[in-house]
Specification:
Elements (H helix, E strand, L loop, with lengths): L1 H5 L3 H10 L5 H13 L5 H28 L1 H13 L1 H6 L6 H21 L2 H17 L5 H6 L8 H23 L13 H19 L12 H19 L15 H16 L3 H24 L10 H11 L5 E5 L18 E2 L2 E3 L1 H4 L5 E2 L2 H9 L3 E6 L10 H13 L1 E8 L2 E7 L5
Parallel strand pairs: 1-2, 1-5
Antiparallel strand pairs: 3-4, 5-7, 6-7
Helix pairs in contact: 2-3, 4-5, 4-7, 4-13, 5-13, 7-8, 8-10, 11-12, 11-13, 12-13, 17-18
């Protein structure tokens, strides 16, 4: 999606953002500029390098923050732990905004103790500006303000509240625009057992490390535990609670919470390795075991199997299944995104539902013809390739999507299905033509 959006002209990109995906608008504009500057370079390099650099910057800044709050060894350990965390490694490779948001949140967390100490408007403005940019890259970064609140000493709360209010005012236009685009997140389901267990495990790890550390800072200062523990727990918890009303929880939306985890683990490791005897030996052995356990995960994260979907595998499966097919159908329409990176992968079969292509219509996935025309086009085909979500995903309920499912069920027979990472490719044929 980023590749397609970033390569559109500015007028077309602006029109698209007015109708859809405004929450990622600033990131698309940034990537548009990078592709304009380095258009001759490898597209994957241009796409992924900002996330790699942002993750490196976040790890370095986190080390400096840990040094300020708990000493050099704790800071170094925090930076290393952060870089080794599997979710951080994963999104360091993605052409999306999450690594950049994480870097900005870490930077804001670094600026917060300075603003509390200096008590100047310039220091608070710097903190607020960094938080605002993070929020404009992704709205859910605003939850960091709630996470930072417990760390702010009483003497600095008034200045912090004014800063938080300024951030909220700056974010309000984007929030108002994106609220009207809430259909963009209709694909998010309820919180699964895996997501709940993952969050609970991280929260327990953070709380356990916090229990090993000194209780609080000196008067009027920002302490490591009051800053790091809420950062580890609060953004994910708030998003989960909001999901009880409207499903919104996706772990990457609050990736920056792992900065709090890394700070706590780094400081706890520093404290344990300073102990004598068995405690120190146990800490060293546990660290070694954790590194050994993370190594295969780190290797796996650098393979296509770690991705939500494998666009290359989808393209190959379509080419294999496409022999003799009269058309292709995306079910739902948002799966047209699989062909945006390499339009040649679906060259040949006619897109039976498409009215106007994504770039032409200033939409993310293109516009589709009326339901009756979809049925009419389907009935002219003998064999159709259908690209579908994995089994178990919620079904879209638009008239076009209902018509696709009904027409396939009434007039076609499924012949073969191939499942690849994140997708099902099924060949449908008229009865007797499989």
């Amino acid at each position: 999606m980023t590749y397609d959006m970033a390569r559109r002209g500015l007028p077309g990109l602006w029109q698209t953002l007015h109708a859809a995906d405004a929450v990622h608008g600033l990131y698309y504009l940034l990537m548009h500029g990078l592709f304009g500057l380095f258009g001759g370079a490898d597209p994957l390099l241009v796409l992924r390098l900002p996330s790699v650099l942002a993750t490196a910057a976040a790890a370095g800044t986190l080390a400096l923050l840990g040094q300020r709050l708990a000493g050099p060894r704790a800071g170094l350990a925090a930076g290393v732990v952060f870089a080794l965390l599997p979710p951080v490694q994963r999104y360091a490779q993605e052409g999306r905004s999450y690594a950049l948001v994480c870097a900005l949140v870490v930077w804001a967390s670094y600026l917060l103790p300075r603003a509390v100490r200096c008590r100047t408007r310039r220091a608070w403005a710097a903190y607020g500006a960094v938080v605002l940019v993070a929020c404009l890259l992704h709205e859910f970064a605003v939850l960091v303000l709630v996470a930072h609140a417990p760390a702010v000493p009483r003497a600095a709360r008034r200045a912090w509240l004014w800063t938080a209010l300024a951030v909220a005012v700056g974010l309000a236009p984007l929030a108002a625009l994106s609220t009207g685009q809430s259909q963009q997140v209709a694909w998010i389901g309820g919180i699964g057992a895996g997501a709940l267990a993952g969050f609970a495990g991280v929260a327990a790890l953070g709380a356990g490390c916090a229990a090993l550390l000194p209780r609080g800072p000196g008067a009027g200062q920002v302490g490591l535990v009051p800053l790091a523990l809420p950062l580890c727990v609060v953004p994910g918890l708030l998003l989960m609670l909001a999901s009880l009303i409207e499903p919104l929880y996706v772990d990457r939306y609050v990736l920056y919470g792992h900065a709090g985890t890394a700070l706590l683990v780094g400081a706890a490791l520093d404290r344990l390795t300073r102990s004598a005897g068995r405690i120190r030996a146990g800490a060293v052995l546990a660290s070694g075991a954790a590194l050994a356990a993370l190594l295969p995960i780190a290797v796996e994260l650098r393979t296509p199997h770690s991705r939500t979907d494998d666009v290359t595998a989808v393209a190959a499966a379509v080419r294999t299944a496409g022999a003799g097919a009269d058309g292709i159908l995306y079910l739902p329409a948002r799966r047209r995104v699989w062909s945006l990176v390499d339009p040649g992968s679906v060259r040949g079969p006619h897109d039976l539902a498409l009215e106007r292509a994504p770039a032409e219509s200033h939409t993310l996935y293109g516009t589709e013809v009326a339901p009756a025309l979809i049925r009419s086009r389907l009935l002219t085909a003998r064999r159709v390739i259908v690209l579908r979500d994995p089994a178990g995903r919620p079904l879209d309920t638009t008239p076009q999507e209902r018509e696709k499912r009904q027409a396939l069920a009434a007039d076609f027979t499924p012949c073969t299905t191939r499942t690849v990472r994140g997708a099902r490719i099924t060949v449908y044929a008229r009865p007797g033509h499989c």
